[in-house]
Amino acid sequence: VHRRNLNPMFNETFVFGVAYEQLRSRTIQFSVYDFDRFSRHDLIGQVLVRNLHDLCDINHDVEYTMDILGVPQVRYRKLSQVDRI
After folding, report:
1. pLDDT at 82
2. Per UniProt, which keywords does this protein have (predicted)?
3. Contact yes or no for 46/69 (Cβ under 8 A)
4. pLDDT band at 63 (very low <50, low <70, confident <90, very high)
5. What span, in angstroms and rounded, lies between the C-alpha atoms of 83 and 62?
6. Backbone angles phi, psi at 24, to 5 degrees
7. What are phi and psi of 70, to 5 degrees?
8. What are the residues facing 47 on neighbouring strands?
9. Interatomic CA distance for residues 69 and 48, integer angstroms
10. What are the C-alpha distances in Å from 67 to residues 28, 30, 35, 47?
11. What is the mean pLDDT of residues 3-9?
12. Structural domains in the chain plus CATH codes
């Protein structure tokens, strides 16, 4: 959790135990949310890592860096009630 920060930095290491044969059919999804204790959490963006078979080297650690893709914002507005005829 990064509190009161409009430009957080994530320097994290993740280790996943997946059989090499399963890498072609796997996708890793990282999601970043704006956490609010009093309302729903808003998705800020996400990273999808596909083609894991092509990215992995079983003899070496692999470092992979991507920008977080923003989620299109949908805004709703309350419409006034329509009068019946």
Report:
1. 58
2. Repeat
3. yes
4. confident
5. 62
6. -65, -30
7. -70, 155
8. 30
9. 9
10. 14, 11, 20, 7
11. 75
12. 1-84 (2.60.40.150)
